[in-house]
Amino acid sequence: MRSSELAEALVQGRPTTTRMCDRLEHDGLIRRERREQDGRAVEVVLTKKGRDEYRRCQPAYERFVEDLFGRYGQSMSARRDASGSPGVGGSSVRRDR
User: pLDDT, tens digit, for every residue of 7-50?
Assistant: First the structure.
């Protein structure tokens, strides 16, 4: 992935992404490669160490997201069940006829 695409995907500025990549490269988790077609473009590539670290962290990340959004989903379901309405906080959505 190009570093500019990474910045866009992370919804952060290019300078912030560059500093983050500097740290990840220093730690041996990524490497930067120049594209042959366009010498200005830089590809960010996971190293073997980076892939291994990703695999190690992925289950914990998935549990975190499931816990976070699972609780949100349950609270939304509880509201819907209590009110009998799909609206947030027990209020129904009103539609003009």
Answer: 999 999 999 999 999 999 999 999 999 887 877 888 999 999 99
17 within 8 A of 6, measured Cβ to Cβ: yes
Q: How many CA atoms lie within 13 A of 77 on its CB side?
A: 6
For the chain, how long is the longest CA-to-CA vector?
A: 62
Nearest to 53 by CA among 75, 35, 28: 28
Could you tell me which of 77, 80, 75, 78 has the C-alpha nearest to residue 92? 80
* Of 35, 5, 27, residue with least CA distance to 17: 5
